[in-house]
Amino acid sequence: MGIALIWSIITVLVRWIFSKRRGAISYDSSDQTALYIRMLGACVIFKQLFSRDVRVRSQVGFEPERRGSHPYLGVDFRTLHSRAESAGSIPARRIRRLFSFQRHLLSSRLLRGAPHLNTLHILDEDYCGQAKCMLEKVGSWNFDIFLFDRLTNGNSLVFLTFHLLNQYGLIELFQLDMVKVRRFLVLVQEDYHNQNPYHNAVHAADVTQAMHCYLREPKLAQSLTSFDILLGLLAAATHDLDHPGVNQPFLIKTNHYLAALYRNTSVLENHHWRSAVGLLRETDLFSHLPAEDSLGIERQLGSLILATDISRQNEYLSRFRTHLDENSLCLGQSSHRHFSLQMALKCADICNPCRPWELSKQWSEKVTEEFFHQGDIEKKHKLEISPLCDSEANTIASVQIGFMTYVVEPLFAEWARFSDTRLSQTMLGHLGLNKASWSAMEPEASGSSEEGESEPTRATEEPSSRALSQGSQES
Prior knowledge:
Order of helices and strands: HHHHHHHHHHHHHHHHHHHHHH
Distance between the termini: 43 Å
Largest sheet: none
């Protein structure tokens, strides 16, 4: 069945629904919600049929040529990490998302102070209540983002970021339209590739929660302005927007158009920033502000996101260390406050090894799965395998031990000098315990290897920090 014919049928169906229910549509009625769900369901069916048509055309050789892709490697990043799913699994997930819409609608009305005329009874109200209880402890370092994501039916980024913006009073202070805020956050969440094992909306929500913890640290809480906090939260939520699930070296060696567009420099970070700016403008979130202020927000947002480029880790760390050595970091200056926000975002981005073991282990497994999947793609197409991406030469433990040693520990040691608090000591404590746990999983660590093999083994266990920076995707 052709796409044009399918679209015509859907159009006729939607018009018929409107004609039958005209005059009975109200934003406060359950009928409106039901109509919305029916229309959205039709769109889901159309999207599924369209995707199926694209796959069929690809199989028979009619797939359009991709811009700038490697001549022997046509990678659809949207399906790079997708797994085979049963026919019934997609509709089930869509239904849960549709139920979540009701909660979005209800919570928006309550925050606006609208009377609770219709409770919109739904099957998963208990889950909504549990998520609300979790948000009461959103400042806890033990916050389980995986559980929160399940309780919000996959909408952790929207719920958590909206809650924080409201909790800090930023929506009222900056006179933000609540509908625009909600739409912006939904679009942000949808632009993350949730097929990615690691770089998905849950990771963005986790980084946003960590950023909130750092913003509450005394040294920052006493100095940051509301504008700084707004920038910090938005940067955390969008810092990996539209991440393809592969690293910069992969994009460069496959001649991807993004690598050419940004001249092989901070390719992913530039793309995340520009994608965020695109959504800000699409939703007109700051359209009520003077144009100069809107542009200033976009520029500073870019400065924060670009700081998460792991290849520039030593540059930022050296500057941070110099400030601390000379005691020259003055948070009364806007430029120094901005730099502290950059360092806070860098810490939030790679804080997984500093979480409790139950959470840290899950993140380690997810990021390594993403690494190894990229390596499998590179092997398949006879490309040079990126550092840390070869599943035959690396293990989860070896990857994590190297990452903690050469990237995480130096950064968080300096952060603890900057903000010597209970949270900083807790993070360093978890980091040490987690590293020991991974070390215990390495066969060489148990002393089972023969004495003559010890030196070669050590050589393979201590990759250079440059290799880790090139291969790391935890940025």
